[in-house]
Amino acid sequence: MKLVILVLLCQMLYCVDVDKNTFSNYKDVKTMHLHIEWLLNLDEKVIDGCVEYSFKVSANRLSEIHLDIYKMNILVVYYPDNGQVLKWHVESDKVQTEEQGDKLVIELGQMYKLGDTIKLRIKYQIGEDARALSFMDPEQTDDKKAPYLFSQCEANNCRSMIPLQDTPSIKFTYSATVITQSPLINVFMSGNRLLNQKFTLINDYKKGQIANIFQFELNIKIPAYLIAIVAGTVQEKSTGRRTAVISESKNIEKYQKELDELDNYLGYLENYIGEYKWGSYKIVILPASFPFGGMENPLLTFANPTIIVGDKSGVSVAVHEIAHSWFGNTVTCNNWSNMWINEGFCVFLERKGLKQLFGDINLVHVNSQVGNNEMNALIKEFNSSPDDFVKSYASLHPKTLDHNADDSFSTIPYERGFQLLYYLEKQINETRFQQLLKAWLAEYEYQSADESDFYRFMILWLKLNLDTEEYQNIKKSIDNVYTKWVYDYGQPPIQETFENPASKEVLELVNSWIEGDGTKPQNYQIFDGFKSNQKQLFLSTLQEKSKDVTVAIMTSLEDAYHISDLTDAELLFRWYNLSIVTTYAKDNTNLLKIKKFVGLVGRMKMVNPIYKALDKQTATQWYQENKAFYHPLTRQSIENIIKGKTISK
Ligand SMILES: *[C@@H]1O[C@H](CO)[C@@H](O)[C@H](O)[C@H]1NC(C)=O
Ligand SMILES: *[C@@H]1O[C@H](CO)[C@@H](O)[C@H](O)[C@H]1NC(C)=O
Ligand SMILES: *[C@@H]1O[C@H](CO)[C@@H](O)[C@H](O)[C@H]1NC(C)=O
Ligand SMILES: [Zn+2]
Known about the structure:
Layout: H1 2-12, E1 29-41, E2 46-57, E3 61-69, E4 73-78, E5 88-91, H2 94-99, E6 102-113, E7 117-126, E8 133-136, E9 148-151, E10 171-180, E11 186-189, E12 192-200, E13 210-223, E14 229-232, E15 234-238, E16 243-248, H3 252-258, H4 262-273, E17 281-285, E18 294-295, E19 300-303, H5 316-323, E20 331-333, H6 340-358, H7 361-383, H8 388-392, H9 412-428, H10 430-443, E21 447-449, H11 451-465, H12 468-479, H13 482-487, H14 501-516, H15 532-544, H16 551-561, H17 569-581, H18 589-600, H19 604-613, H20 616-626, H21 632-643
Parallel strand pairs: 1-10, 16-17, 17-19, 20-21
Antiparallel strand pairs: 1-2, 2-7, 3-6, 4-7, 5-6, 8-9, 9-14, 10-13, 11-14, 12-13, 15-16, 18-19
Bound molecules: 2-acetamido-2-deoxy-beta-D-glucopyranose (3 copies) and zinc ion.
One 2-acetamido-2-deoxy-beta-D-glucopyranose is lined by residues 429, 431-432.
């Protein structure tokens, strides 16, 4: 009993390290607000930054503030109120400098006590070493008129563009003033834009040139990883009452047309989960080197151009990112071991929205099956690794201590997390589970949580809302699986197959192809009538059975469906991966097509499997040729893949 009380007390007092991937002393002092000032010099690829912090002290005595930084130049730290300059130094460890950055230690020059507020200012400079930032030359853009800049802060990369408490367990509001030295460059951030004014530089080396000043503000508390910026010759086009699309001018009409139902998607999700509280919603379609499908920056989702297929088949990424407005951005994981608190819940809500969008639950199940196939393949892959960290990536609780949290990123938190919630919904009942999720959002609104918070909340909610017998039965069925589902490295204890008529057709066609060994099945043309996700399932099932897929079958498939000429990158990367695995692509035109693909698409989900499948020599050669095109995060992950390869495969 005593122990229990001690543990509780300890948690309340924050003796527990919630997030070990930050060097900051966030338990002793908390960021309340940040004001960012950035002077963008995109020609030189440098940013002069000044950040003003409002902190609140949560320890009894505080004499230092520790912040996360990654490869930046700190110039000066001072109190804005009286100008007093403060002592600072950087504590670093050679390995950690590359992995997670360093600790900036600021000596406050006096002792603060619980409840005090502190205002500080830091002036600093960042450049191409900032791994959150992608600086692009005009030639690398669609419009080719001006340089371009975009950020990607998740997981722990915000510390490379701002010195701060870089942990999802600390939330704050922010505002920003951004000045560009070119009138062509337009800027958006993950907040409301209050001002955009042009002015003339008067005594600068660029005298007479027009500069552009922008102001932003976000009054809802967010974690560091949701700060975002895009700057370039980008413009905005409305797609509805609350929504808009932003991109360079070249393809903007195409993007606007493909995303003209964004307002409806927002409505579908609201139907299930309640009001969208962030105001407007805009999607930026970034250059093709963007490493992800989408990134849920509040009010300003970033998306990869591969989601624009022409037939709206890629818009589920948009639905996913909107769903993060609730799961991820409103209730946030408290460290990156708990990422499924964002992603699993987000996929669950996404699929509630897709049910309304598709008008057919079977087609939603097809998505879940594709997800399942990919999850199972990864669980196998991670489990076969000798590295205990990699093994843990198969669970919903990956190890990230002393590592770059990005390393643990995979489809596991999405699909394994989704499956757990799907299972819970089945035990609890759909209507009630919906109520439970709404209550969870209300309870943890604008806060951070982990899997034990969710477990405790769920059990208490069930206890309060069900009669005793039902409560006990349901609790028992949850307790039988929850811990295994979250912590074990093997398959989840229970697996839903999601079989349905729409997938049955697909699986039967795969079997006929394999049995035919190169002869086309009689009904082979039904493939052309499949929806995009059925085609994905077709290819991912072939991948599962790749041992039985001969070059003759691949040749005949290509002849029948011309898959490598399609424009849907979701299909292309699966086909190309399979082409390498089955040796259909080997020193021939097929291989050249794949080479071209990895030079045009920088989305990690799509290029990483291809680099994994290639032999070391080819992978190294292709990587060197395309390195300049890739984003810093993509570079890092491909380099890791190549490092892990042995010379002859
Ligand atoms: C994340 O939080 C969980 C508790 O929810 C803890 O077990 C784990 O060690 C933490 N991981 C890191 C890297 O801080
Ligand atoms: C699920 O719960 C709701 C609300 O408690 C109830 O009205 C409904 O009948 C239940 N559905 C099933 C299938 O048990
Ligand atoms: C790509 O091929 C590898 C084998 O090299 C396989 O393990 C992986 O599951 C495939 N990935 C996809 C997405 O098809
Ligand atoms: Zn997501």
